[in-house]
């Protein structure tokens, strides 16, 4: 079954704890937390203190996506905030192996995010250090963007590459995914879907999450 990770980028920041509880009760598998610094991407969101506060109101797995420069400086802070997964961008560090080891040393699972134009070849020497691969299907920075069609092939190529290497590393896809395209995304090989506006702006959050989780069962 597909795992669904609602992105709090589309939540109501004035009522974030309420929105988090809503998606938890609606059946979300994890909470995708976008951290932006205004440098790596042209937007600013939240930091470790807010994540630590949210940890008090939910038992959901915290899947933190660091869209920031110099992520090495903040790994310990987010680990101490109670997260289970930290995903960093391949484009944000000159020493990816060291960075991923730093995350693992904090007892946290690792994810590596690839921007739309970043080739999957960067994964080649990092497979032993990865617990998840995040394929960005929009250019990161803002919610509500449209899915980039070329990413369907990129997801398929990533799944094929991992299979050829005999690696069972989950593929997460983030950006522009809703009920209209989630099945195709999953048919290409995605196992974890990040969705923001399609969930939080829907008439029924519970029904939307349920339909997303069942999308790969629809013929």
Automatic annotation (TrEMBL):
Q: Where does substrate bind?
A: 7, 65, 141-144, 174-176, 196-197
Please name the PANTHER family in this protein's record. RIBULOSE-5-PHOSPHATE-3-EPIMERASE (PTHR11749)
The residues forming the signal peptide are none
**Tell me, what's a Pfam family for it?**
Ribul_P_3_epim
UniProt keyword terms in alphabetical order: Carbohydrate metabolism, Isomerase, Metal-binding
Spell out the catalytic residues.
34, 174
Q: What does this protein do?
A: Catalyzes the reversible epimerization of D-ribulose 5-phosphate to D-xylulose 5-phosphate.
Catalytic activities: D-ribulose 5-phosphate = D-xylulose 5-phosphate
What is the name of this protein?
Ribulose-phosphate 3-epimerase
The coenzyme or cofactor needed here is:
Fe(2+); a divalent metal cation; Co(2+); Mn(2+)
Q: What pathway, per the record?
A: Carbohydrate degradation
- Any GO molecular function: D-ribulose-phosphate 3-epimerase activity
Q: Which PROSITE patterns would you find in this protein's record?
A: RIBUL_P_3_EPIMER_1, RIBUL_P_3_EPIMER_2
CDD domains, per the entry: RPE
């Amino acid at each position: 079954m597909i795992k669904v990770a609602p992105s709090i980028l589309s939540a109501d920041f004035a009522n974030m704890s309420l929105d988090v509880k809503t998606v938890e009760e609606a059946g979300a598998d994890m909470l995708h937390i976008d951290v932006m610094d205004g440098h790596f991407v042209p937007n600013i969101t939240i930091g470790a203190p807010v994540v630590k506060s949210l940890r008090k109101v939910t038992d959901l797995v915290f899947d933190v996506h660091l869209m920031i420069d110099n992520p090495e400086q903040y790994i310990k802070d987010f680990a101490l905030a109670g997260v289970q997964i930290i995903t960093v961008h391949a484009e944000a560090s000159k020493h990816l192996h060291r960075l991923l080891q730093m995350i693992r040393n904090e007892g946290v699972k690792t994810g590596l995010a690839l921007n739309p134009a970043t080739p999957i070849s960067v994964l080649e020497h990092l497979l032993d250090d990865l617990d998840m691969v995040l394929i960005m299907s929009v250019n990161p920075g803002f919610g509500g963007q449209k899915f980039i069609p070329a990413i369907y092939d990129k997801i398929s190529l990533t799944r094929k590459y991992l299979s050829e290497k005999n690696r069972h590393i989950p593929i997460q896809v983030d950006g522009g995914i809703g009920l209209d395209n989630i099945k195709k995304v999953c048919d290409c090989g995605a196992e974890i879907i990040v969705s923001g506006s399609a969930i939080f702006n829907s008439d029924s959050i519970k029904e939307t999450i349920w339909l997303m989780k069942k999308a790969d069962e629809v013929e």
